[in-house]
Amino acid sequence: MISRRNFLSLSAAGVACLGTEHLLAAAPSGAAAPSGAARAGAAATSAGTARAAGTTPAPGGSGAPVLVVVLLRGAADGLSIAVPHGSPEYYAVRKQIAIQPPSGGSGKARSGKAAARALPLTPEFGLHPRLAKLLPAWQAKELSLIVGFGSPDPSRSHFEAQDRMELGIAKVPGAPASPDSGWLNRLAQGLGLSAPLGAVAFAPSLPMILRGVAPSISLEASQAYGIGAPEARRAALEGGFERLYARAAALHPRERVGGAGVSGLRALAELRALPRSKAEGNYPRGNFGAGLSDLARLIKSNSGLRLGFVELGGWDTHTGQGDGDSGRLARSLTELGGGLAAFREDLGDAQARVVTLVMTEFGRTVAQNGTGGTDHGHGGAALLLGGSIAGGQVLGSWPGLAREDLYQGRDLAVTTDYRDVVAQIAQRQFGSGATRQLFPGHTVSTKLQIFG
Amino acid sequence: MLQTPGPSGALQGRRARTATTCLLVAWFASGCGGAPSASTLSPSPESRPAPSAASPQSPSFDQAAARHVYSRLAFGPRPGDVKALQARGFDAWLNEQLAPSKLQDSAAEERVRGYRSALTPAEQLRAFRALRGGRAAAPELADEEMPGAPTTRREFRALAARAQMLQLSRFVESERQLLEVMTDFWSNHFNVYARKGPVRFLASDYVENTLRPRALGKFGDLLLATAKHPAMLVYLDNAQSVKPKAGSMAEARGRGLNENYARELLELHTLGVDGGYTQHDVQDVARVFTGWSVTRPASGQLSYVFRKRQHDAAAKRILSQDFPAGQYEAEGMRLIKALAAHPATARHLSRKLCARFVSDTPDETCVKAASEAYLATEGDISMVVRAIVKQPSFWTAENQRSKVKSPLELVVSSVRAVDGHVDGTTGLAETLSRLGQPLFMYAAPTGYPENGEAWLGPGQALSRMRFGIQFASGRVNGAEFELLPLLPLTDNPARASAAVNRVFFDGTLGAEAEAAITAELTQLASPDRVREHAVAFAVGGPDFQRQ
Fold first, then answer.
1. CA B138, CA B145: separation in Å to the nearest integer?
2. Does A235 contact B at CB distance below 8 Å?
3. Which residues in B339-352 are b (16+ Cβ under 10 Å) and which e?
4. How far is B185 from chain A (nearest CA, A)?
5. Among candidates B303, B282, B304, which has minimal Cα distance to B292?
6. DSSP B243
7. What is the structure's pLDDT at A221?
8. Range among B59-63, B123-127, B402-406 rated most confident
9. pLDDT at residue number A321
10. Cα Rg for chain B, rounded, in angstroms?
11. What torsion do the CA atoms of B78, B84, B90, B91 make, to the nearest 10 degrees?
12. Which end of chain A is more exposed for a tag (fewer CB within 10 A), N or C?
């Protein structure tokens, strides 16, 4: 008997080929560099050249490639993001909360409301209607979805799973000892970043993913670019604070207090000098939109930013998850889609050298729970945006929703390890020299045709 | 702007207490010569051995040690507290703090009374439904879904602010400081989120009637009380978790089991993430708590109810123990008891308490001693606290001032340092929100983090500098205090920095650190500016961020 999993993974691959016109068979991403570089423009070409020469691209500078990671904290429901509208099982176990298939689709429609229907991407998958603002990116082949995406780590604890995902480890049998730095920081180390704004998180505190020896900084989004010192006394107060914090940093090098104050004040000075963007008004209100807006400013200016991190919470939809039109998930996805679309528009030409990966710590149960929501699951979905990617694809081998295909009999399986995606992107953006220590002990698979 | 705090009830009450304690001090001082005798703590004041039995390795009870006590077991000292504690000795102070009901606190009660709602949670909910034109409040209603006029939304938010203030004002005002520190600890350990459904109506009741009265009692009682509180039942979805019945109305509406509470109960409230439970345990724990729910708002009550018909009465197996069929509500009680008595729970809580009181990376000796005390006393929290402060590691110099203050600790300790008070508005809750720690607003069930790393990104450091500048101008939204009596105006930079050292550090700031502040004041034009900048650098600078 042909298993559903095999059937679907074949069809997904077929769709991918049709969508991208890249019919290359599985090849390491390095081999596909020429076509990717052609799409990416000058910036990626320079990275490609540097890689060919076996050197790391020069850190900072104008037009340097950038990686932005968006972490959806709280376990976003992948089955509502990349909607498997070709799977009857999906509609069978999510009676109230399934996203209805696109008009004319194969699934059984519960309601006729067009606004609540999935947006058609491929014969098997659709996009949540509240992500409609991302459709132009899909059409421009600057957006791909990855299904069966996640970490092989079995944890269903948000906190544990987030920590491990940020450290770049998976606690599975035979896994190597845990590194104590975040993988984005290891990438910063590999890149030899030294600019104060080379690796920036817009988050209340430095996230685990950026912890480590390379300089990195967390800023609270939309901080008013000042500490409230009256103009006439700004130099005395900011200068005084900088000297006091620098003194503390020198006296207690192992503590974060001093260093945090000094980095904060220096970043403040740099951010204050950046021009404001006309596109600022398009971002959704809140820290997520403000963080993306600030990231765009840093990318477009010559701040030396190479690695960016933004987070968005509100995904733990145990109750009232809702459908395509209402409920908690629809609300969170509106913010996500609006933010990413504004970011893309704001970046403009710079989009060619930026790759944005949107991921979450784990997916949610395939079946809805007893309270109109979903519980902690395993595999999920990721979004990938960028001017240089071979977009317009639903990537990854679809694990299938038949009971025998589920992880532990209840959750979507993971067929694409997030580390393989991160490693491929990092390699393409920054070259192999920068990525050598990215995931120690993990053998990277490059089977996904992210860049064509 | 701010009212001058006259000889308020709070001040008088404090003075009265200090006077009586001085007598006690005299008696003690004759025996122990001011040494802290931390290592000779005994369970009750009656059976106390002679203070002179202090072991030789006891740290000397100097100003720094006394300040350390106020930094860790309180939200910072008010003027005179450190000297009084030094004179009085640690044991007497601790015994008094560990028997909070005997500690007179009427002045604080007076100041916090305004933040208490005259209405019960159910009455508040009803009032809001009336405001909104009688539409039923779905329990999962979030802020953004609030129908109705903006005024309604504002009122709705004001309720949450009052709940925050009731908590925050006690931290600032209460003489029962250790009880308040523990209340803060449990508020995070048993976190609830005000934006979820009717939790904002319930948060004050949850803290005032559930957490605080048990904060120094038996952990098992506290655990059971939280399990039954509507705030927790709603926050972690247990109120809606029911036995799925094939073909029933419930199933038709998609109702059934919800694992959220069960998982966090094991992972966060009791055993800890490495506590050795499985996914199967989580599911069966969830089944045990089916039917533990909340009365319908229409009933006029918002309280715990056990719904027998929604309970899954079949047999369960949890952590290798059998829970036979047909035990109903009693099996939940049994499970709570078993979890509270579990060694993994003892260890998990001990580690967290050592992290709170001693160090972000507590030593194994502390964790072990606390764990043993927990198991020996059936989870008596006050005995666990005693065990921790008996540890040499609590007192070592390297652990003093080693923890980063949370924004909450920064705000409360700075207001207390200048003998300030809440001003009757909800402004101080906003001040705290701006610093990144709005109370009852942490969505994840872990509660706000305890480790310093989480609180010191560069962005947060900037917010703290901003707070220092505001504080120095005397305009902290929601607080009333006068800098003048404590910090006289002077155009002498050295005198100004010595004064902030006295007020904000009890003189424990080293000479070089003090000189570093002095150096930043030399170019300033007027005495106002000299003092203002000195206060800004003291409160917003690196040293005051530590405790």
1. 10
2. no
3. bbbbebbbbbbbbb
4. 19
5. B304
6. -
7. 62
8. B402-406
9. 94
10. 25
11. -110
12. N
Can you tell me the distance from the alpha carbon of B175 to that of B197, in angstroms, rounded to the nearest whole number?
Answer: 34
Chosen from A227, A365, A374 to mutate, greatest number of chain B CBs within 10 A: A227
Q: Phi and psi of A416, rounded to 5°?
A: -125, 115
What phi, psi does B533 have (nearest 5°)? -65, -35
User: Closest Cα of chain A to B95: distance in Å?
Assistant: 34
pLDDT at residue number B140: 35
**B99, two tokens:** 């028997």
Q: Looking at residue B269, what DSSP letter applies?
A: I
DSSP-H helix ranges across B190-328: 199-205, 219-228, 230-235, 249-252, 260-264, 279-288
Give the single-character DSSP code of B53: G
Alpha carbons B175 and B103: distance in angstroms, whole number: 7
> Amino acid identity, residue A377?
G
B 384-413 near A (Cβ less than 8 A): 404
Residue-wise pLDDT tens digits, B222-263: 999 999 999 999 999 999 899 977 665 555 455 689 999 999
pLDDT, position B418: 98
Count of positions (residues) in chain A:
452
CB pair distance less than 8 Å for B240 and A371:
yes
Quick check: A200 and A295 in contact, CB under 8 A?
yes
Model confidence over B187-219: pLDDT tens digits? Answer: 999 999 887 778 888 999 999 999 999 999 999
Contact list, B546 vs chain A (CB under 8 Å): 257
Band (A62; pLDDT cuts 50, 70, 90): low
Q: Which residue has the higher pLDDT, B43 or B71?
A: B71
What is the per-residue pLDDT across A289-332, written as a single tens digit (0 to 9) for each?
999 998 999 999 878 899 999 999 999 999 889 999 889 999 99
Highest mean pLDDT among A271-275, B93-97, B142-146, B489-493: B93-97
Phi-psi region of A286 (alpha: psi -120 to 50; beta: other; left: phi over 0): left
Comparing C-alpha atoms, which of A179, A66, A29, A153 is closest to residue A429? A66
pLDDT mean over B106-122? 89
- Tell me how long chain B is: 547
Pairing of strands A82-83, A126-127: antiparallel
The residues with which A311 forms a beta bridge, in sequence order, are: A71
Residue B71 CA to residue B409 CA, distance in Å, equals 9
pLDDT at A253: 84
Interface contact B255-A203, CB threshold 8 A: no
Do residues B518 and B494 make contact, with C-beta atoms less than 8 angstroms apart? yes
A152-158, Cβ contacts within 8 angstroms, sequence gap of 24 or more: A152/A414, A152/A417, A154/A378, A155/A362, A156/A362, A156/A376, A156/A377, A156/A378, A156/B263, A156/B279, A157/A376, A157/B263, A157/B267, A157/B273, A158/A73, A158/A74, A158/A75, A158/A316, A158/A361, A158/A376, A158/B444
Determine contact, residues A390/A412, Cβ cutoff 8 Å: no
Structure confidence by residue, pLDDT tens digits, B382-414: 999 999 999 999 999 999 999 999 999 999 999
Place of tokens 């007020």: B503
Place of tokens 């995902």: A165
Residue of chain A minimizing CA distance to B140: A320
More confident site: A129 or B159: A129
- Identify the burial level of B57 via C-beta atoms within 10 angstroms of its C-beta, where 0-12 means exposed, 13-18 middle and 19 or more buried: exposed
C-alpha of A276 from chain center? 25
d(CA A211, CA B451): 14
Q: Which residue matches tokens 């459908």? A: A323
Between CA B373 and CA A4 the distance in angstroms is 57
Q: How many CB atoms lie within 10 A of CB B542?
A: 29
Contact state of A237 with B460 under an 8 Å Cβ cutoff:
no
